[in-house]
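Lab manual, section 2.4: Encoding a predicted structure.

Procedure: take the sequence of the chain (215 residues), apply the prediction step described in section 2.3, and record the output as structure tokens. A sample record is shown.
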Amino acid sequence: SIPASPSLCNSMSLRGGAMACMLVGMLRPFTSRPLTRLAMTSLVMRSASAFAPAQQPWLQLKKPAEVARCRGGGMGKFGGETALRAETGATPPADLSGDTIFGKIIRGEIPSDKVYEDDLCLAFKDVAPTAPTHILVIPKQRISQLSKTKEELGDSSSVKELLGHIMLVAADIGNKYSPNGFRTVINDGKEGCQSVYHLHVHVIGSKQLSWPPGV
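Recorded output:
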């Protein structure tokens, strides 16, 4: 089937609402008690909602946890686009040493809105922010997941220094861009909602955040 456009959805929704109002008016003389009228109105309005195409993703937001981001602006406040999308973790690739989009950003093959860089890490703005401040801090040395650090690099003092350095950079960025408070997030694995298998720290802030996050 061919998906209907948003304008068509709106048109059909308006027709459904008009029909609901007409039915309520027609049935009103036969319902004397207020509670009966209320129940009848609710039933008719729910039936009228069937006029909007159910296959449209913007009409299928099942629960708040599924509304994780809006490309370019979280819930549509920061980037202009209003289509919401669910955020889910990706299955780890068979070869965790393979290249990722972050590797291409580090090498300059893909442009980024960079806010910080040194010999060990790079920080840039997330292209799909969940808050006014949403910056990613990534190590230049490839680590697929936080939980795989020892397996891939060992647990030497230099590895610990690298991880500590990334967190200190994240703290400096948080203090600079969200001085009233911020959140640092590291997603790990599919159930942890990791989408790119190159370790990265989210620095999120410049708004009042809620708790618990994403459960």
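Check your result against the sample. Residues 6-27 form the longest helix (22 residues).
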